[in-house]
């Protein structure tokens, strides 16, 4: 099965099992907007909990807020979003399809990387055990040629984006002979800028309605509350403010399911530090955030850093954490050293003094900021695409979602073997015992095998089967999702088993290691 086929199957699976539905589907959907179903919302809430606890609970110097989506329009002037939150777009005149010019070029760059990997794979096959990969990469003429062309194109793209030179971007697309994936032609329009913010009106027209924006990032709600939180919480630098909330972007190229949406959720943390100490903290948060991802156990090789060559004008360092999705390595999280740009600009635009008096140095300054910013929906996609597996068993097959147990939508399914003889009553007793702490379901319909499969398909880590022996000795069978192993345990032992398998503690310990 190709990665593309796997991705299609995952999307269908998400709908069939109540994870994710297209928005307003009975009206044929709304492009790049999705709804979370009964399973999806549980998974999403667990991801948010994992993030919140790891950031706010485990770090004494981080607190959380929940700012409004609507903000004063001047906020977006100060942040630079009114002037510069643009995508460079290009249309193909034959297919009438619109693309982000930089994404077209990035796709071309990725193809060159693939070509290099193919050359390496061919040579590995040819030379067998004696293959010296590093030497081959360094000395092979064909690889050298592809790499030189690739690096030059990358350099030209970075330069054009930095200079905001739209003509140079178009020239590059022409020079690289990039064709439209739909029409296959090179019949391109000029590159134009397009602002990504959604506008709406506040107040009724008669009162003199004003244009405001749906926030394109949650970060600004944190910056404008810096003084409120610092003073009311008597916070001492270094400290952080965290927030989870909706953000909106009128993305033109909305692709790959929930990877790029027009309405999505972010989990952002701004960490305020003394000027000059930002690089130390940038390193700290880079490592901490990578440990947060790796603790989920999908394999360290599934993640990589991508350091930015093109820095935004306000940043002095930036990196992405990329995950190996079925469509390749792509960004899930950004870690940015944003200097004093945001607080400084809000001070300028609002006319307020936004500074911190440092009792240790006896001076006032505008703090510098390290930001960690991750998309909730991209995390959902990361977990689902890494978890989805089709397995051939001895006499059967199954689709199993190997979701890390602490994130699984349902933690325990309690299954009475038959629907009589007092077994459903005993199952209910177990559900009632566990439901205060865990999302637990009970399922009585169909054969036990079918019920196991249904729970595998939604990623339930533990199934507890109640049978006639349970009535005699108060023991049940616990069946583990991943190994399908079964163990006979006392009902009284269930709370500790469930905690051990599904508690978040083990993840947190790995982050703090
Ligand atoms: N405050 C910084 C900021 O917003 P960003 O790189 O534009 O930075 C941060 O976004 C994260 O938000 C991304 O790494 C991604 O996970 C998520 N994100 C951004 N745009 C998105 C979209 N259209 N759909 C889904 N997630 C998105």
Can you tag this structure with a few keywords?
18 helices, 7-stranded mixed beta sheet, alpha+beta, 513 residues, binds glycyl-adenosine-5'-phosphate
Distance between the termini: 37 Å
The helix tally amounts to: 18
In round numbers, the mean pLDDT is 94
User: How are the strands of the biggest sheet laid out side by side?
Assistant: 3-9-10-16-13-12-11
Low-pLDDT segments, ≥5 res: none
Specify the biggest β-sheet: 7 strands, mixed
Strand content: 15-25%
Helix content: 40-55%
Bound molecules: glycyl-adenosine-5'-phosphate
Radius of gyration: 26 Å
Structural class: alpha+beta
Could you tell me the number of beta strands?
23
Large-scale geometry? globular
What secondary-structure arrangement, pairings included, does this model have?
Blueprint: H1 3-16, E1 20-22, E2 34-36, H2 38-57, E3 62-65, H3 73-78, H4 81-84, E4 86-91, E5 98-100, H5 101-127, H6 133-139, H7 141-162, H8 166-175, E6 192-195, E7 199-202, E8 210-213, H9 219-223, H10 226-232, E9 239-248, E10 263-273, H11 278-294, E11 303-307, E12 317-325, E13 328-337, H12 341-350, E14 356-358, E15 363-365, E16 368-375, H13 376-387, E17 388-392, E18 397-401, E19 412-416, H14 423-434, E20 440-442, H15 448-458, E21 462-466, H16 468-473, E22 475-480, E23 486-490, H17 494-502, H18 505-512
Parallel strand pairs: 3-9, 19-20, 19-21
Antiparallel strand pairs: 1-2, 4-5, 4-6, 7-8, 9-10, 10-16, 11-12, 12-13, 13-16, 14-15, 17-18, 21-22, 22-23
Helix pairs in contact: 2-13, 5-7, 5-8, 7-8, 11-18
